[in-house]
Amino acid sequence: MAENSKDLLHVEGGKPLVGSIQVRGAKNFVSKAMVAALLAPDTSVLKNVPQIRDVHVVSDLLRLHGVNVDVDEAAGIVTIDAKKVQLADVADVDTLSGSSRIPILFSGPLLHRLGEAFIPALGGCNIGGRPIDFHLETLRKLGAKVDKEHADGIHITAPDGLHGAKIHLPYPSVGATEQTLLAAVQAEGKTELSGAATEPEIMDLVAVLQKMGAIISVDVDRTFRIEGVKELKGYRHTSLTDRIEAASWASAALATQGDIFVKGATQPEMMTFLNVFRKIGGQFDITDEGIRFWHPGNELKPVAIETDVHPGFMTDWQQPLVVALTQANGLSIVHETVYEQRFGFTRPLVDMGATIQLYKECLGSLPCRFQQRNYKHSAVIFGPTPLTGREIDVPDLRGGFSHLIAALAASGPSDVNGISLIDRGYEDFRGKLVALGADID
Ligand code: EPZ
């Protein structure tokens, strides 16, 4: 059983999710925009911020560095006054180690403000090794010295400040792209970053940096060019919607034969997902206020999916969608090319009755980095298979939401343990489930 009842959710499955919910700002943008505020000795205001754990972690880390952060959770407005910044006490920073991947992005801003930074050991979902070699390589090329890496953190200094550099990413890493942008905007001279990622969340971060006074361009070949500037000022910005949460609820509508209006969902960031959703047989209707996703009642069709960087099919979309694919009529294939171990969540689905087999081979049109290595990064899902409720332990954020969807789609009761992990990235998901008619407590 879960350590405490707060961490356990009892679900009576088999009821379609029907109704309307609101999705607010993107988890993988708002946290980075909050870090960007650190660059300017000024006040910044961020709107459409969801009430999720990642926001609290970044707020606490900013406060440890002497920054004033005011969070109006109901209004979704975060006000950051970064006029004063100080080095945080290592012991305090350690308390946040292991809780998120965001702290590494404090490096650039702290090096500009203070000439040094202590970064706690990172956390984040165990969906792969999650190395930060690209991040450290970028900081070194920009002139920083990574003094030492030890169990609970990294000490970085840049006594002579940062200078522009020519940087190429071996893989279009989202985090390493953000690392470079946050560090290069005030580096002396020009920085060229090739092989970058250009996710919508990254382009929203570029918009924030431009509002602050930065000079950043991106070429057709995904090369960013940054011209360092002396001064940056605070920004006012409204976050784009969380397209991962929106797609998660769309997958829940398919898996439970439901009908969900996701207020705030926007089409441009979800085009690839919408194409796949339609090929499976889901219906959607796009309005100015959001997107309605529903199961039309006839059988779902199997699909072959290959995850990739933007504008490809997003890796964070596949886990919730796999649950819907267990109800499709035939064989579906998912080739996960971004993370080497992102199918661990399928084990409990098989125990609930799904037929899913994992393979080391690249079951897709492109051989990826995990070819010929020992990672089971391709999945074949056979359906339709009825799911039966059971006790489930949540493995990671998106896998956890997939287990929730499976419990809701299954017949009979399920006890989902460790659900507070889902609070990291899904604002008020319990309230939303109730609004959609789920039978939970
Ligand atoms: C961000 O993680 C997101 N997290 C992830 O969402 C998302 O899945 C991922 O980007 C890809 O879109 C946040 O933004 C907080 P990466 P990030 O660097 O930046 C390798 C969620 O559920 N790599 O693009 O950590 C890495 O091992 C989370 O919201 C290196 O080898 O992802 C992986 O194979 C899950 N060295 C690949 O790049 C490095 O230094 C992509 O990782 C960095 C990355």
UniProtKB/TrEMBL annotation:
Location (main, coarse): cytoplasm
Cellular compartments per GO CC: cytoplasm
Positions annotated to bind UDP-N-acetyl-alpha-D-glucosamine: R101, D316, V338
Tree of life domain: Bacteria
Protein keywords: Cell cycle, Cell division, Cell shape, Cell wall biogenesis/degradation, Cytoplasm, Peptidoglycan synthesis, Pyruvate, Transferase
Compartments, as annotated in UniProt: Cytoplasm
One GO-annotated biological process of the protein: cell wall organization
Catalytic activity annotation: phosphoenolpyruvate + UDP-N-acetyl-alpha-D-glucosamine = UDP-N-acetyl-3-O-(1-carboxyvinyl)-alpha-D-glucosamine + phosphate
Enzyme Commission number, as recorded: 2.5.1.7
Pathway membership, UniProt: Cell wall biogenesis; peptidoglycan biosynthesis
Pfam families for this protein: EPSP_synthase (PF00275)
Active-site positions on this chain: C125
MF term (GO), any: UDP-N-acetylglucosamine 1-carboxyvinyltransferase activity
Key word Cell division present: yes
Modified residues (2-(S-cysteinyl)pyruvic acid O-phosphothioketal): C125
Residues involved in phosphoenolpyruvate binding: K27, N28
Enzyme class: transferase
Chain ranges of the Enolpyruvate transferase domain: 11-433
NCBIfam families (UniProt xref): murA, PRK09369.1
Family label: Belongs to the EPSP synthase family. MurA subfamily.
Role: Cell wall formation. Adds enolpyruvyl to UDP-N-acetylglucosamine.
Family matches, as HAMAP family: MurA
Name the UniProt record assigns to this protein: UDP-N-acetylglucosamine 1-carboxyvinyltransferase
Gene transcribed to yield this protein: murA
